[in-house]
């Protein structure tokens, strides 16, 4: 990662801002109109909706990223595309009126004519847009943390501030490992995180005289790819166990179709460990209620009958009346 990449993100942040009063996005530079409808034939483009404005800003950011030469040519397009997606997810969340679901980012970008012409050969790019916002936000914070470290460490700056910023990157990196997606979107997530880690390692090597801390993992954590493998294996084991735990003669429908909804997220543990345990009690509740009704109701009725008979006897006994 370089100053050019971080500068491009800072610049696009100035070009498009969200107005909390009008609840709309505003262009602060006419350059973004270049990717609006109407400019295809040299006319003056006009983005008349928030979706079109966000799509235009995304394409402008990708264009600015072309000047970045930190990566091999065969990897550059894929890496920078995903970094642009991280920025877009952050920008979308500034608007509370936009519901952020799995299809939000693709839905916005597909309205842009230039995006439709963009060469996107890898499925990972589509999967990266399907992350829950918490995952995207953690990755974007890590990216911005690296940019902050670059700004603090370049030139004759305060060495303490440089190291402090780098230490914050270590925390942000661990946050990305504590909670991350599983199944088909686990691998593209790890791809982005691995690239960000490599970017930090390059910065650490570049400013070796400042002795920046290494991105170390706390005890019990592995790198992203290993965690991904462990998580998917754990998920498979839990599903298999769940499918045979309730009734050995009758297989319970698999949980795979209900997992993993991006709207259900835990910041402390992965949902792969929670959902089967939630599903089992939900299945058992009606069974327990049925047993309770069958066996406990007659007992309750007998007790009520005895109490009623006692009241009748007491009322008919003149000594107790």
- Given helix and strand content, the structural type is mainly alpha
Order of helices and strands: HEEHHHHHHHHHH
Report the radius of gyration as a whole number of Å. Answer: 29 Å
Low-pLDDT segments, ≥5 res: 250-301, 311-321
Beta-strand residue fraction: under 5%
Note the main sheet: 2 strands, antiparallel
End-to-end separation: 94 Å
- Please bin the fraction of helical residues: 55-70%
Spatially, the strands of the biggest sheet line up as 1-2
Mean pLDDT: 77
Instruction: Report the strand count.
Output: 2
Shape: globular
Alpha plus pi helix count: 11
Protein name: CIR protein
Pfam families: Cir_Bir_Yir
Organism: Plasmodium chabaudi chabaudi
Keywords: Membrane, Transmembrane, Transmembrane helix
Textual characterization of the structure:
This is CIR protein. It comes from Plasmodium chabaudi chabaudi. Keywords: Membrane, Transmembrane, Transmembrane helix. With about 325 residues, the protein is mainly α. The protein has a domain of about 220 residues. About 60% of the residues lie in helices and about 0% in strands. It has a two-stranded antiparallel sheet. α7 runs parallel beside α9. It starts with a helix and ends in a 5-residue tail after the last helix. The relative contact order is 0.08. The C terminus is likely disordered.
């Amino acid at each position: 990662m370089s100053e050019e990449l971080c500068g491009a993100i800072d610049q696009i942040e100035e070009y498009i801002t969200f107005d909390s009063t009008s609840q709309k996005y505003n262009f602060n530079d006419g350059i973004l109109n270049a990717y609006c409808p109407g400019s295809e034939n040299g006319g003056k483009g006009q983005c008349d909706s928030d979706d079109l404005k966000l799509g235009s800003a995304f394409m402008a950011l990708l264009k600015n990223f072309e000047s970045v030469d930190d990566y091999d040519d065969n990897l550059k397009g894929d890496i920078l595309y995903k970094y642009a997606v991280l920025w877009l997810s952050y920008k979308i969340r500034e608007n509370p009126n936009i519901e952020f679901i799995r299809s939000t980012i693709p839905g916005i970008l597909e309205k842009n004519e230039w995006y439709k012409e963009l060469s996107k050969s890898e499925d990972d790019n589509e999967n990266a847009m399907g992350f829950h916002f918490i995952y995207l936000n953690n990755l974007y914070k890590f990216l911005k943390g690296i940019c902050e470290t670059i700004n603090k460490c370049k030139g004759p700056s305060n060495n303490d501030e440089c190291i402090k910023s780098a230490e914050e990157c270590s925390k942000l990196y661990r946050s990305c490992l504590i909670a991350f997606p599983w199944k088909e979107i686990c691998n593209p997530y790890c791809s982005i995180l691995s690239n960000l880690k490599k970017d930090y390692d390059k910065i650490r090597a570049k400013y070796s005289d400042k002795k920046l801390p290494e991105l170390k993992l706390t005890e019990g954590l592995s790198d992203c790819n290993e965690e991904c493998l462990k998580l998917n294996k754990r998920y498979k084991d839990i599903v298999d166990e769940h499918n045979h735990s309730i009734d050995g003669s009758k297989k319970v429908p698999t949980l795979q179709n209900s997992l993993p909804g991006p709207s259900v997220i835990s910041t402390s543990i992965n949902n792969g460990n929670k959902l089967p345990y939630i599903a089992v009690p939900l299945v058992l509740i009606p069974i327990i209620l049925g047993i309770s009704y069958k066996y406990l109701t007659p007992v309750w009725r007998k007790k009520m009958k005895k109490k009623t008979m006692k009241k009748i006897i007491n009322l008919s006994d003149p000594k107790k009346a």
